Amino acid sequence: MHLKLTKYYSFLVFVLISFTFNAYSSKSRFRGDVFVDVSAKKVLYEKVAVLPFKAPIELAGSSVSDFFTTELLLNYKYQMIERGQIENIFKEQALNLSGVTDNSIAVKVGAILGVQGSIIGTISEYGYQQKKSKKLPSVGLSIRMIDTTSGKIVWSVSDSQLGSYKTSLSQHAKMMVKNMVTALLRKCREVGDIMATALPKPEIISISGGVRSTTIEWARDGTSLIKGYQILRSTLSEGPYQVAGKKQNNGPQIIRFIDSKLLDSSMYYYKIQGISKTGLLTMPSKNMEIITAGPPPQPYNIIATSGDLRKVTVSWESINDPNIEGYFIFRKTEESFFKEITYVAGTAKSSYTDSGTKKERLGDDQLYEYAVCSVNTAKVRSKRSKSASAKTCPLPSAVTNVFAENNMVKSVALRWDKAAENNLKGYCIYRSKHFDRGFEIIAFTKGTNNNTYLDKSKGKKALKDGRTYHYRIASYYQKDAIGELSKTATAITKPLPERVKKLQAISGEIKQISLNWEENPESDISHYLIYRKKPKQKKFKTYTQVESKNTSYVDEDLKDGACYLYAISAIDEDNLTSLPTDLVRASTKPVPVKPEGLNAYLEDTYVNLTWDINPEDDIATYKVFRKKSFKKILIDETNSTSIIIGDLLPNKAYAFVINAVDKDGLQSAFSKAVKIKTPKQ
User: Which of 169, 382, 644, 653 is the most exposed place for a label (fewest CB within 10 A)?
Assistant: First the structure.
């Protein structure tokens, strides 16, 4: 019974011819005739029988038919029926073994043998011819195969040749048969009849469907007959089939072929054929049905847990599927749709902690909903899982019972009740100059057991004396997760002492200036600072300090007629210094001005000195000095504005100066000198 070939064989002709290694090409040119019916490629001639050839000599027919059988076996084109089976049929049918030439007998015997083709032949010549002095072997052959179903001639080949005198008749016949078979098979390939039914079929070991892929494994042919394999694929069992790939017959004992880029959950049909070194194809392997894997399974047992600050942990049941490559995590809020937030690679991990991103962190005390989908190696995603929800923890509640201590020096001590929440990092201290606005963070404390804080800021944030400050406290999980602010607590720093009042400086005292002031009202005044400077000096210098029990001070050892500016500050026991008083000015008593208008009137041996009266009211006396060389010698004093100096020597020069002395003994500078010269006697 004929096995009809499917349409794919016509497609394979071109492919396999290009794959062929032509082992049959011979250096000697075949001069005979070859015919192959073009419809031969449509019929599978799996088994054939070579019937005895008709020959002038019976032994020659038997030998040449055996030659032809052997040559076909060597090329694996057909599965051959043994000669013994053929002889038995001939005996049973009472047929002559000396040769078959009738097509009808060939059809009859073939049908009995169960073959698709019967090969018959005629040996027209089998002997020697004399050529000059040499005997040359001469053989003439005509062979054809008959389709045992239709009786048609499938192919025929004939040749007649003289051999070399060095070659025996049998050797010459064998060589001719080989060349004829080579030419026949070449012609078969040309018309597309390339099936070699005697070649071993591929032995399938395993098949499996994967993610958009299929895998086929078969045993590598251990002979040298098979050069490679072609894998045929179709989406229908009846075809048409197309070449999906090729594999060489080398390497491991098991050959593996992976067909990729297929559709999900789809049925594919496969056949495998070996390709011989002569370019013939083996019989196809058994049909294989393989279904590719569908989309990956949907994750299940989704659990979302929180209680942490701005974090939610999502977990799911790990999927035991080697094709799973990882998981995608989705998140939504009550106001949004599901949004893909991350990818978890691999299957070893079945949880993810969502803490948001730098640009989009999770909120506080907010409900989030999560879903998960798996993804396989072909990047196909499963359906999203059922969702699970969790709520992030709220910010800490407000701190209670905040107290701020008053009247501290440039500082404020705070205390409050400890917060009840766990996992707190500490407390955040806020301060403002206003009761209900403008609060700024001034410090973070560490640890929740430390529920006190001393605001003793420095630099630009330093507290000022006598100022009101308002405070609020909040606990925090981290510096960007601060809880609700407490109620406001207010404190006033200790003020500076009041400015000293009624500072007075007394002028006109002899070489001193007396200061006095009112006692400050504060009970903790430690001392007073007195500042002094001259009128032309730019800055005050701290001159001295006076104990708090004193409210006066005498600035002694001053120059006569010197002017000074004074201010004073009160200093308390905390070293707080009041603002200085307004400046007061005072001067010591000046010396009298030097006398003016000194004149000398010479009369004989005495001289009368006169001068203008000094403007001061308290001039007690005027002193008269004789100026001699660099010395001034006191010679007299008077409380009037004239004096007579006698006992002058004749012909002698004299110089006189005076100064004024007040009642406090202050002496003026010397007047201008007056000079005289007594006459000669």
Answer: 653
Chain centre distance of CA 34 = 74
Output the CA angle 592-595-597, nearest 5 degrees.
Answer: 160
**What CATH number matches the domain at 303-391, 3.40.50.1820, 1.10.240.10, 3.40.50.1580, 2.60.40.10?**
2.60.40.10
What CATH superfamily is the domain 203-290? Immunoglobulins (2.60.40.10)
Percent of the chain with pLDDT over 70: 96
- Under CATH, to which class is 403-492 assigned? mainly beta
Half-sphere exposure of 485 (CA within 13 A, CB side): 15
Tokens standing for residue 568: 């004073």
CA atoms within 13 A on the CB side of 227: 13
Per residue in 272-306, pLDDT (tens digit) is 999 998 889 999 999 999 999 888 999 999 999 98
Half-sphere exposure of 348 (CA within 13 A, CB side): 0
Does residue 593 come out as left (phi exceeding 0), alpha (psi in the -120 to 50 range) or beta?
Answer: beta
Q: Yes or no: say if 290 and 249 are a contact pair by the CB < 8 Å rule.
A: no
Report the amino acid identity of residue 226: I
Backbone angles phi, psi at 176, to 5 degrees: -60, -40
583, 572 contact by CB (below 8 A): no
d(CA 486, CA 427): 11
Cis, peptide link before residue 240, omega less than 30° from 0? yes
Phi, psi of 348 (to 5 degrees): -65, -30
| Architecture in CATH for domain 504-587 | Sandwich (2.60)
Locate the domains of the chain by residue range.
3-191, 203-290, 303-391, 403-492, 504-587, 599-677
Residues 225, 18: Cα–Cα separation, whole Å: 18
The burial class, CB within 10 Å (0-12 / 13-18 / 19+), for 562 is middle
Task: Compute the residue count for the chain.
Answer: 681
Which pLDDT tens digit goes with each residue over 644-656? Answer: 999 888 889 999 9
